[in-house]
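Translate structure to sequence.
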């Protein structure tokens, strides 16, 4: 699935004030692309995801979800920074919840959930409840649930933002391993430039509020070696350029080679 935004504008109006969160925002993603969105606080990154997910109505312009080879009724699934697990459900039932909603039988959904939980390092914790898990484990369960639901478009709003750096790095590797299996279309919001470079095919840099795309940065160097390359000259040069864009609110001639 591809996302096409043309001159998107989103306003929030109240009796006290009117705020324009997004204005003139345009981009098009590619099917199977891992596309990150980065920008200063308050630039409308979460508003963009909510609008794409159909939870927020555009004030101007358009948002279109274009199906490719996968013609499914399901369209987009939004994963927030908070894990949103059901406290009364076990790890296994939380992970398999999307499959249950789609009508999959218990045996089918439990087999699929156990396999993915094991890949995410949660084998043996299937009967635990969310309050018995660390923050990183909870987020692993949330990621498992999202992938098992198998949406053609996965929208992720800073899913690792509240985690410590070591857990965050581990989950980045696990997320890429899951994504590489079927190249699901992903739109990933983050404040972390390192994270955006490690994960992405491209990075959209947004301006300060109202948010618009000031640059679409292609990340061309091999993905497999990126976590270990964070101190290399190539990685640091790209990081400096993206950081400058975020700080200045304008694009520069910036492409990794």
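Result:
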């Amino acid at each position: 699935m591809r996302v096409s935004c043309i001159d998107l504008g989103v306003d929030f109006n109240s009796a006290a004030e009117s705020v324009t969160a997004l204005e003139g925002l345009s981009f098009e993603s590619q099917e199977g692309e891992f596309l990150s969105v980065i920008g200063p606080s308050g630039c409308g990154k979460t508003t963009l995801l909510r609008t794409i997910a159909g939870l927020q109505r555009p004030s101007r312009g358009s948002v279109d979800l274009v199906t490719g080879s996968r013609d499914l009724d399901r369209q987009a699934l939004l994963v927030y920074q908070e894990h949103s697990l059901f406290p009364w459900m076990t790890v296994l039932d939380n992970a398999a919840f999307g499959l249950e909603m789609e009508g999959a039988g218990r045996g089918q959904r439990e087999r699929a959930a156990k396999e993915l939980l094991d890949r995410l390092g949660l084998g043996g914790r299937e009967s635990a409840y969310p309050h018995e898990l660390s923050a990183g484990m909870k987020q692993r369960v949330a990621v498992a649930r999202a992938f098992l639901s198998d949406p053609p478009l996965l929208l992720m709003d800073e899913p690792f933002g509240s985690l410590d750096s070591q857990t965050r790095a581990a989950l980045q590797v696990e997320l890429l391993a899951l994504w590489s299996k079927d190249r699901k279309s992903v739109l990933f919001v983050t404040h972390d430039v390192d994270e955006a470079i490690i994960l992405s095919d491209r990075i959209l840099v947004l301006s300060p509020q109202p948010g618009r795309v000031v640059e679409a940065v292609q990340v061309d160097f091999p993905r497999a070696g990126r976590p270990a390359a964070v101190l290399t000259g190539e990685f640091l040069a790209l990081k400096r350029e993206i950081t400058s864009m975020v700080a200045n609110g304008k694009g520069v001639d910036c492409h990794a080679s």
